[in-house]
Specification:
Length: 146
């Protein structure tokens, strides 16, 4: 659920902490501590919203998104083989085959393989079947031919 963001700062001019809801015009409060200022502005916000609704005034939708969220959304996401398989619509074993064949880059971290979600485009239109260039098992016990 989105909510309005708060700005809390100390005002040396006023000698107190100020809490403000920038998206709601003139909705701010002060206190001796940051906690008190936040408590007061939360009550002011509820009163502001109740008054606007009672008078039929428009209530703005909360639309603030911290810069951190924007930055995180722009970063590549690492996927497990299972998550990659779900995105590609194939079995996790097929994803592992694509990794072993070198067609899908992945990094090993502990026991897990991690795939950059941007690399899925490299194999998205790959035809079904065994990846070319990867040696098949030749002996019982799953040992690979070198």
């Amino acid at each position: 659920m989105n909510d309005y963001y708060l700005v809390v700062f100390y005002s040396a001019r006023d000698g107190s902490w100020i809490a403000d809801v920038p998206e709601l015009e003139y909705c701010s409060a002060f206190g001796d501590t940051p906690e008190q200022a936040v408590h007061e502005v939360m009550m002011a916000k509820e009163a502001w919203l109740a008054s606007a609704r009672a008078h039929g005034d428009p209530v703005p939708e909360p639309r603030y998104e911290p810069e951190l969220y924007k930055w995180l959304d722009s970063q590549p996401r690492l996927l497990t083989t299972k998550e990659a398989a779900l995105r590609l619509g194939i079995a996790p074993s097929r994803v592992r085959q694509l990794i072993l064949s070198g067609l899908l880059p992945a990094e090993k971290a502990g026991r897990d393989l991690w795939i950059d979600e941007r690399d899925l485009e490299k194999v998205r239109d790959r035809p079904a079947g065994y990846p070319k260039g990867r040696p098949r098992t030749a002996r019982a016990g799953g040992k690979m031919d070198e």
